[in-house]
Amino acid sequence: MRVMANQLQPPPYPFIDRDDVLAALAVQVERATRDDRPALVALDGLGGIGVTSTALQFYAKHKSWFPDGALQVKLSDPQRDGAGR
Q1: What's 6's DSSP letter?
Q2: What is the reported pLDDT for 68?
C-alpha cells in the first residue's frame, strides 16, 4: 500500500472566474511533463484575492498529476499575520 501525502484543505466552493488561470497552469504543467522536466509554477498576489484558492482548485482538478501527493507551506511572516504572538 502506498501512502500519499496530502496536507491541503479542500478547495473553496463556489469557485468563480479563474478558468483562464487554471487553463494556463495546466498548459505549463503539461508542457513540463511532456518535456520530462519537473514543473514549478509560482502564483503570487495580494492576500485575499484568491491565490491559495486558485492553487487548491487546480490541485483538486488535477490530483492525478501529483501521484506523490501535495504539501502546503505557509510562506507569510508569522510576526505580521499574528501567528507569532
Answers
A1: E
A2: 80
Distances (CA, A) of 17 to 33, 35, 62: 26, 30, 18
Indicate the burial class of 58 (C-beta count within 10 angstroms; 0-12, 13-18, 19 or more). buried
**β partners of residue 6:** 70
Distance, CA of 37 to CA of 35 (rounded, Å): 6
pLDDT of residue 4: 65
15-44: buried (b, 16+ CB within 10 Å) or exposed (e) per residue?
beeeeebbeebeeebeeeeeeeeeeeeeee
Q: Quick one: what percent of the chain has pLDDT higher than 70?
A: 82
Alpha-carbon span 5 to 7, nearest angstrom: 7
Evaluate if residue 50 carries a pLDDT over 80.
yes
